[in-house]
C-alpha cells in the first residue's frame, strides 16, 4: 500500500478528508478502499449546492465488482464535485489522494473533524480489514 | 471449512485478492480485473477452475441413464471425446444444475458440474443412477485450468510433446482428448470454455497442476481471476447457475431452450413439466439488456416494462463494450420502452439479442 499523506483525516468507512486553506474540505476514498473495490467504472456525484449530514450517503462509486456508497465524513454544503471522474472514474484507482478526489464541502460544524481518524489510526483499520 | 485448490499458494504469491466462492478460497483478481479480461479477449489468459467438480460415470447402461438424467440428448454424442452442454432438471422442470457431458466410452462418460452445487448434484445423480447400476465417482484428485483467448490454444500446444501437437491442434470445438502433456504429465484436454473465446479446459492430476500453471505463465499466458471470468462469460451470453437459473426456473425461462431436446420417446426427468408449461404458455423469458447511459446494471435491480416488472439476473460492466450489460427475467409480451430502477432513478435500456460479444468483437447492434 502507498504512503498515506500526513495531512489527511479518515472516516472508518474509508473516506479521506483534507482541510484546505480556505477552510473547505475535500473528500475522496482511501487507497486501501480503491484497491479493495478494484477497477472503478462509474462515479455518481452529488449535486453542487446540496446539504449533507455526516454519515449520509453522498456519492456512489461502482467498480466492476460492486457498487459502494461514499459517506460524507462531516456535515456541510457540497460546493464542488470532480466532474472529470464521469469520463475517467479510473482516476480514483490511479491517484486516490490527489486527482481522484470526489467532492468538496463547506463544513457546518468544524468540531466534527475531531471525530475522524489520524492516518496511523486509519492504517490500523485498513490492516484489520485485510484479515 | 473453506476449501483450497492446489494453486492456492500460487495465487497468493501472485498477489491475488482472494474471496469465498461456493465454499472455495479463490482469486477474484491478481491486479486489474479489466486488464485480465482484455488479456483473454486479445491474447491468452488462464483461470484456476479446480473447484469445479469432475464426476465419472461407469457401467454398461451409462448412456441409457444419461438419456433420463439430462434434458439435452446424449445420443448427439457419437464420437469419442465429444462434449454436450445440458441442464439436469427436477420433476418440475426446474434446473438442478447445468453441466458438460463428455463421451469417452460406452461405459464411461465424464461430467463437469458446478462447484457451489457439488453436494446437491452428487446426491441427485447418485439417486437417479442407482436403478441403472451406474457407478458415480467424484474425481477430487484432478485439478483444472481453463486456458482461454485467441492465442490460448497455440500457447498450450507449444508445451506439448512434438508428437501429440498435431492431434491437439486438430481437436474440434466441444470435444476432448487424453494426451501426454509437458514432462510426461497426463492431460485431459477439452476445447471448451466459459469466456466466448477459443481455448482449452485442461484436467490434470493435482500433483501436476502447479507445474502446468507455471509452464503456461512462462509461455505468456496471463493469470486471470474469477472476476474476469464473470465479465467474460456475461459478454459471451453464458448463464451462471444460481444467478440466471435455479430450481425455481425452467430452461424455457432462462434462454436455454436450445439445450432441450424433445426427441420422441425419451422420458427425461422434468420433460412432462416442460411440455405442460410450453402448452400452457411460458409466462417469463430471459432477455439481454444494454445500457447506453453511464452506470452499472446489477443483480436484483428492478426492470420496468410495458408487460410488467422484471429483474436483473447477471449484470455488470462489460469491458469490451465500455458499458453495462445484463440478463433480465421479464414477463413475456410487448415490452415497450424498458427502464431499470437504479437507486430510485429510471434509466433507459435497450433489449438486445445475446451474446453481446463473440470472438473478441461486439455483436452487431450491441455497441449502439
Automatic annotation (TrEMBL), chain A:
It holds the Pfam family GCV_H. The modification N6-lipoyllysine is found at residue 65. The keyword Zinc does not apply. Residues 24-106 form the Lipoyl-binding domain. Its cofactor is (R)-lipoate. Binds 1 lipoyl cofactor covalently. Keywords: Lipoyl. InterPro entries: Biotin_lipoyl, GCV_H, GCV_H/Fam206, GCV_H_sub, Single_hybrid_motif. SUPFAM superfamilies: Single hybrid motif (SSF51230). The glycine cleavage system catalyzes the degradation of glycine. The H protein shuttles the methylamine group of glycine from the P protein to the T protein. HAMAP family: GcvH. NCBIfam families: gcvH, PRK01202.1. Belongs to the GcvH family. PANTHER family: GLYCINE CLEAVAGE SYSTEM H PROTEIN, GLYCINE CLEAVAGE SYSTEM H PROTEIN-RELATED. The glycine cleavage system is composed of four proteins: P, T, L and H. This is Glycine cleavage system H protein. It comes from Luteibacter jiangsuensis. The lineage of its organism: Bacteria, Pseudomonadati, Pseudomonadota, Gammaproteobacteria, Lysobacterales. The gene is gcvH.
UniProtKB/TrEMBL annotation, chain B:
Keywords: Aminotransferase, Transferase. GO terms for molecular function: aminomethyltransferase activity. SUPFAM superfamilies: Aminomethyltransferase beta-barrel domain (SSF101790), Folate-binding domain (SSF103025). It is an enzyme of class 2 (transferase). Residues 284-357 form the Aminomethyltransferase C-terminal domain. It comes from the Bacteria. Residues 9-263 form the GCVT N-terminal domain. It catalyses: N(6)-[(R)-S(8)-aminomethyldihydrolipoyl]-L-lysyl-[protein] + (6S)-5,6,7,8-tetrahydrofolate = N(6)-[(R)-dihydrolipoyl]-L-lysyl-[protein] + (6R)-5,10-methylene-5,6,7,8-tetrahydrofolate + NH4(+). InterPro entries: GcvT (IPR006223), GcvT/YgfZ/DmdA (IPR028896), GcvT/YgfZ_C (IPR029043), GcvT_bac (IPR022903), GcvT_C (IPR013977), GCVT_N (IPR006222), TrmE/GcvT-like (IPR027266). The keyword Transferase applies. Its EC number is 2.1.2.10. NCBIfam families: gcvT, PRK00389.1. The glycine cleavage system is composed of four proteins: P, T, L and H. PANTHER family: AMINOMETHYLTRANSFERASE (PTHR43757), AMINOMETHYLTRANSFERASE, MITOCHONDRIAL (PTHR43757:SF2). Belongs to the GcvT family. The glycine cleavage system catalyzes the degradation of glycine. This is Aminomethyltransferase. It comes from Luteibacter jiangsuensis. The lineage of its organism: Bacteria, Pseudomonadati, Pseudomonadota, Gammaproteobacteria, Lysobacterales.
Amino acid at each position: 500500500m502507498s504512503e498515506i499523506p500526513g495531512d489527511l483525516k479518515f472516516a472508518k468507512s474509508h473516506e479521506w478528508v483534507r482541510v484546505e486553506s480556505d477552510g473547505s474540505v475535500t473528500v475522496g476514498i482511501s487507497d486501501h478502499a480503491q484497491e479493495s473495490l478494484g477497477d472503478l467504472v462509474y462515479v455518481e456525484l452529488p449535486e453542487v449546492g446540496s446539504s449533507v449530514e455526516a454519515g449520509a450517503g453522498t456519492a456512489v462509486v461502482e467498480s466492476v465488482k460492486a457498487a459502494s456508497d461514499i459517506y460524507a465524513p462531516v456535515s456541510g454544503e457540497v460546493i464542488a464535485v470532480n466532474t472529470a471522474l464521469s469520463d475517467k472514474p479510473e482516476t480514483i484507482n490511479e491517484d486516490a489522494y490527489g486527482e481522484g478526489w470526489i467532492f468538496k464541502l463547506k463544513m457546518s460544524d468544524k468540531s466534527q473533524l475531531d471525530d475522524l481518524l489520524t492516518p496511523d489510526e486509519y492504517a490500523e483499520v485498513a490492516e484489520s480489514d485485510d484479515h | 471449512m473453506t476449501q483450497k485448490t492446489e494453486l492456492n499458494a500460487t495465487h497468493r504469491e501472485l498477489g491475488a485478492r482472494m474471496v469465498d466462492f461456493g465454499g472455495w478460497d479463490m482469486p477474484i483478481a491478481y491486479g486489474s480485473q479489466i486488464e485480465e479480461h482484455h488479456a483473454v479477449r486479445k491474447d491468452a489468459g488462464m483461470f484456476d477452475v479446480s473447484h469445479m467438480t469432475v464426476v465419472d460415470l461407469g457401467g454398461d447402461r451409462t448412456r441409457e441413464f444419461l438419456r433420463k438424467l439430462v434434458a439435452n440428448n446424449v445420443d448427439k454424442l457419437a464420437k469419442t471425446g465429444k462434449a454436450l452442454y445440458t441442464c439436469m432438471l427436477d420433476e418440475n422442470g426446474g434446473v438442478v444444475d447445468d453441466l458438460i457431458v463428455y463421451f469417452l466410452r460406452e461405459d464411461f462418460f465424464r461430467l463437469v458440474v458446478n462447484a457451489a452445487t457439488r453436494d446437491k448434484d452428487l446426491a441427485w445423480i447418485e439417486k437417479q443412477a442407482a436403478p441403472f447400476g451406474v457407478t458415480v465417482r467424484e474425481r477430487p484428485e484432478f485439478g483444472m485450468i481453463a486456458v482461454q483467448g485467441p492465442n490460448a490454444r497455440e500457447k498450450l500446444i507449444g508445451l506439448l510433446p512434438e508428437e501429440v501437437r498435431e492431434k491437439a491442434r486438430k481437436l474440434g470445438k466441444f470435444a476432448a482428448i487424453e494426451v501426454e502433456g509437458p514432462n510426461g504429465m497426463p492431460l485431459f484436454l477439452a476445447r471448451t470454455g466459459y469466456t466466448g473465446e477459443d481455448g482449452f479446459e485442461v484436467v490434470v492430476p493435482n500433483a501436476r497442476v502447479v507445474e502446468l500453471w507455471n509452464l503456461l505463465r512462462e509461455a505468456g499466458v496471463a493469470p486471470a481471476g474469477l472476476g474476469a471470468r464473470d465479465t467474460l462469460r456475461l459478454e459471451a451470453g453464458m448463464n451462471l447457475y444460481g444467478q440466471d437459473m435455479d430450481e425455481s426456473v425452467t430452461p424455457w425461462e432462462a434462454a436455454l431452450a436450445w439445450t432441450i431436446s424433445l426427441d420422441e420417446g425419451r422420458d427425461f426427468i422434468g420433460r412432462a413439466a416442460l411440455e405442460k408449461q410450453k402448452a400452457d404458455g411460458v409466462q417469463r423469458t430471459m432477455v439481454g439488456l444494454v445500457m447506453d447511459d453511464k452506470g452499472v446494471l446489477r443483480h436484483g435491480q428492478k426492470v420496468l416494462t410495458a408487460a410488467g416488472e422484471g429483474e436483473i439476473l447477471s449484470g455488470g460492466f462489460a469491458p469490451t463494450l465500455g458499458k453495462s450489460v445484463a440478463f433480465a427475467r421479464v414477463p413475456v409480451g410487448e415490452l415497450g420502452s424498458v427502464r431499470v430502477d437504479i437507486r430510485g432513478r429510471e434509466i433507459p435500456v435497450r433489449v438486445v439479442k445475446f451474446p453481446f460479444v463473440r470472438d473478441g468483437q461486439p455483436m452487431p447492434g450491441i455497441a449502439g
